[in-house]
């Protein structure tokens, strides 16, 4: 038997033998992404949310193949930099299905963004720098979301969105700019949100705001943030509850305020790709209670940034277990992946797999300690393909001009 048995809520259906083969063939650490799981999750969110426009937040995981899958499944794309936009365009996503975000868009970002479907405006300054665009105004909803403080981007006192005063000024500017079409309002309450009620509250507030503005607002974008379970003791966000309660709250509030119900938009990132991803490591040393692997905070910054914890597995059978702390190779005390039970004979060369690593892992990786970033290997029905090759020391030196 495996230690412990894989929790089907955390793992995509990728065979352990295939994972071991990937580790042996492509080396470790390696990110694995299951195309089928990404596509199923795209379909599910579109099915459950019916007429809602679903925009994939590409910051969660962006590479040509993944963006192509998501696009083929009918989702729009959210990008927040010229770089993400370049990858989206390279993936063949048409401009009209791209929504451009960012609280500090640079002149270069805005130049590149010319022609995209929507620009989500985050400051009055930005309006001076854009022309001929359909815009959404991002407002700060002032909601304390039920998540880690670093992820509560919609709370008062955050840098994102327009406050009451700036919103008024932005509307004044827009009145004198017929080339800028105000199509909607946007808010993002945060990420890794657990409760539907937080969105209901945001939705009610946004409809009340639309009523106060007294002008036609066709689109209401409630952002992303649907939480996922990283370990067996956590639960996934209730998407069905969202579909039911949030759309009902919007209909109700619109009727009450006598405003036309807007097209609802959501921007999930994590909930599309997190569970489609697995990271493979090899054990490098055992020094009880520590078991060290050949990756860590360079390929997974989340424990160090948010105190995140994972539920890894050893990819082989084993005897009696002992409690260990899985640590990475980087020179920092916070470089910890999780606590788990591993067979007592765990030894260098063993392959460890960490589930729920599809979102904000590849995209949040760094070269700290000049460690090369891992490859991203796509899996589809038992076949594999390298989607992004592993970095080499040559890559590390390429930009270093001496
Ligand atoms: N829309 C906007 C405007 C956002 O800022 C974000 C995420 C999303 C959508 C997608 O949120 P999601 O559905 O993925 O939760 N690095 C952190 C997450 C940062 C999220 C930033 N914004 C982490 O690893 O937990």
Describe the structure.
30% of the residues lie in helices and 22% in strands. With 402 residues, the protein is of the alpha/beta class. Strands 1, 10, 11, 12, 13, 14, 15, 16 and 17 form a nine-stranded mixed β-sheet that branches. It has an eight-stranded parallel β-barrel with strand order 2-3-4-5-6-7-8-9, surrounded by five helices. Strand 16 and strand 17 form a beta hairpin. The longest helix has 19 residues, at 239-257. The structure holds ligand LLP. Ligand LLP binds next to helix 10 and helix 11.
Task: Supply the key terms.
globular; 8-stranded parallel barrel; 9-stranded mixed β-sheet; 17 strands; alpha/beta; 12 helices; 22% strand; TIM Barrel; binds ligand LLP; 402 residues; Lyase, Ornithine Decarboxylase, Chain A, domain 1
Question: Which sequence of SSEs, written as H and E, runs from N to C?
Answer: HEHEHEHEHEHEHEHEHEHEEHEEEEEEH
Strand fraction: 15-25%
Average pLDDT rating: 95
Category by helix and strand content: alpha/beta
| Tally of alpha and pi helices | 12
Helix content: 25-40%
Which small molecules are bound? ligand LLP
Low-confidence stretches: none
User: End-to-end span in angstroms?
Assistant: 53 Å
Oligomer: single chain
State the CATH architecture of the largest domain.
Answer: Alpha-Beta Barrel
Q: Under CATH, the topology of the largest domain is which?
A: TIM Barrel
Largest sheet: 9 strands, mixed
- Number of domain modules: 2
Identify the CATH homologous superfamily of the largest domain: Alanine racemase
* Gyration radius over CA: 22 Å
Write down the overall geometry. Answer: globular
Per DSSP E runs of 2 or more residues, the count of β-strands stands at 17
């Amino acid at each position: 038997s495996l230690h412990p048995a894989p929790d089907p809520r955390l793992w995509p259906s990728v065979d352990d033998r295939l994972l071991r083969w990937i580790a042996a063939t492509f080396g470790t650490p390696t990110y694995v992404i299951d195309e089928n799981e990404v596509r199923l999750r795209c379909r599910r969110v579109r099915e459950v949310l019916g007429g809602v426009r679903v925009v994939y937040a590409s910051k969660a995981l962006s590479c040509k193949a993944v963006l192509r899958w998501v696009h083929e499944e009918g989702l729009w794309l959210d990008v927040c930099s010229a770089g993400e936009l370049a990858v989206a365009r390279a993936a063949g996503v048409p401009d009209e299905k791209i929504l451009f975000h960012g609280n500090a868009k640079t002149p270069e970002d805005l130049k590149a963004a010319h022609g995209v479907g929507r620009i989500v405006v985050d400051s009055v300054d930005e309006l001076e720098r854009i022309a001929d665009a359909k815009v959404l105004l991002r407002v700060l909803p002032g909601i304390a979301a039920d998540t880690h403080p670093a992820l509560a981007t919609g709370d008062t006192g955050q840098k994102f969105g327009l406050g009451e005063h700036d919103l008024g000024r932005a509307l004044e500017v827009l009145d004198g700019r017929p080339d800028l079409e105000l199509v909607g309002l946007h808010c993002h309450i945060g990420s890794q949100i657990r409760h539907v009620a937080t969105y209901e509250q945001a939705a009610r507030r946004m409809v009340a705001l639309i009523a106060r503005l007294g002008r036609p607002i066709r689109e209401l974008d409630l952002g992303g943030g649907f939480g996922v379970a990283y370990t067996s003791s956590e639960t996934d966000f209730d998407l069905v509850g969202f579909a039911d309660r949030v759309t009902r709250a919007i209909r109700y509030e619109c009727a009450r305020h006598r405003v036309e119900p807007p097209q609802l938009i959501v921007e999930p990132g994590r909930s599309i790709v997190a569970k489609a991803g697995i990271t493979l490591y090899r054990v490098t040393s055992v020094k009880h209670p520590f078991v060290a692997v050949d990756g860590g905070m360079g390929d997974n910054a989340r424990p160090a940034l948010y105190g995140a914890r994972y539920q890894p597995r050893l990819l082989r059978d084993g005897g009696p277990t002992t409690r260990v702390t899985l640590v990475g190779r980087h020179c920092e005390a916070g470089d910890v992946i999780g606590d788990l039970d591993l067979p007592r004979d765990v030894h260098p060369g063993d392959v460890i797999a960490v589930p729920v690593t599809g979102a904000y892992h590849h995209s949040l990786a760094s070269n700290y300690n000049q460690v090369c970033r891992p490859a991203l290997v796509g899996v589809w029905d038992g076949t594999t393909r390298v989607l992004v090759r592993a970095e080499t020391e040559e890559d590390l030196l390429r930009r270093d001009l001496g």
